[in-house]
Amino acid sequence: VARNESIYQKFRDVDLLDKKKTVTAMKAGEDRAILLGLGMVIASAMMYFVLGITVLRSYADSVWTEGSVCIVLNSTITADMNCSYSCGLDCWRGSKYPCLQVYVSVNTTGRVSRLSHNEESWDANFECFYVPKCQKDTNAMHHIIVNISERLKPHHQVLCYYDPSDQQESALLTRQYGHSPVFHLLFWPSCMLTGGTAIIFMVKLTQYLSIMCEQVIKIER
Ligand SMILES: *[C@@H]1O[C@H](CO)[C@@H](O)[C@H](O)[C@H]1NC(C)=O
Ligand SMILES: *[C@@H]1O[C@H](CO)[C@@H](O)[C@H](O)[C@H]1NC(C)=O
Ligand SMILES: *[C@@H]1O[C@H](CO)[C@@H](O)[C@H](O)[C@H]1NC(C)=O
Ligand SMILES: *[C@@H]1O[C@H](CO)[C@@H](O)[C@H](O)[C@H]1NC(C)=O
Question: Which residues cross the membrane (predicted)?
């Protein structure tokens, strides 16, 4: 009988050791999960911060806030503009692209405005509708511009954005920092924040439930 008892004791010891091992392993896993969750929350906070001071500020600063129907008055290729493209480290060569000038009438105000493709092309050259990426092949850039001009024939109606305060005389066809891009930019940090919070919540919930379970077992005993 004594012998049987000692064997039984041994089994119990092994069993307890196993339990301890799994508990430590679980604890390490939980700690790692919490760290991952916290990392995701911190990373999303940093992304929000960077976006907040770059994109959202440009968006708030943008003067092209009102949308309207614009009627194309004329679209002409006026002159060749100089641009430079990179041909390697510290190497720049000059090239030329045709300048497409588009004038529209903003329907809601009746004002005549120059049209730019977006904020970026307005920044690059406010006189031309679109500034293609500079390249050696002037023909390719010419094709791009002609292709665009085909779609902006006189009397065509397009949706455009204008400055309701009349400070800015150009209108834009698309806004880089319109609602949709802002939505896309905020989407990923928001996903990350939700994921991180969910991981932390789940781990905490599991810990809480296992503590509850232990207490219930103790009470039953
Ligand atoms: C296009 O229309 C604008 C505004 O009416 C005018 O100032 C400009 O001279 C016109 N351009 C051409 C090439 O007709
Ligand atoms: C483009 O550069 C050439 C010299 O390479 C110059 O003569 C010309 O005036 C420039 N054109 C414009 C629109 O700046
Ligand atoms: C332009 O505005 C006038 C009123 O100012 C309106 O009657 C007309 O339908 C508008 N055109 C478009 C294309 O929205
Ligand atoms: C403009 O380019 C698009 C592709 O980017 C092409 O499908 C279309 O046929 C072109 N239109 C003209 C008028 O060249």
Answer: 33-56, 182-203
H or E segment and range at residue 147: helix 138-150
The finding on whether 150 has its CB within 6 A of some atom of ligand 4 is: yes
Is CATH 2.40.50 correct for 63-175?
Answer: yes
The DSSP-derived string for 106-122 is ETTT--EEEEESSHHHH
Distances (CA, A) of 160 to 40, 185, 202: 39, 22, 47
CA distance 16 to 9: 10
Q: Where are the domains of the chain?
A: 63-175, 178-221
Cβ-contact 64, 171 below 8 angstroms: yes
Euclidean distance between CA atoms 153 and 68, whole angstroms? 18
| Atom 7 of ligand 4, residue of closest alpha carbon | 147
201-220 pLDDT, tens digit each: 999 999 999 999 888 888 88
- Categorize the per-residue pLDDT at 64 as very low, low, confident or very high, splitting at 50, 70 and 90: confident
Q: Is the CB of 147 under 6 A from ligand 4?
A: yes
- 163: how many CB neighbours lie within 10 A of its CB? 20
Query: Is there a contact between 81 and 125 (Cβ–Cβ < 8 Å)?
Result: yes
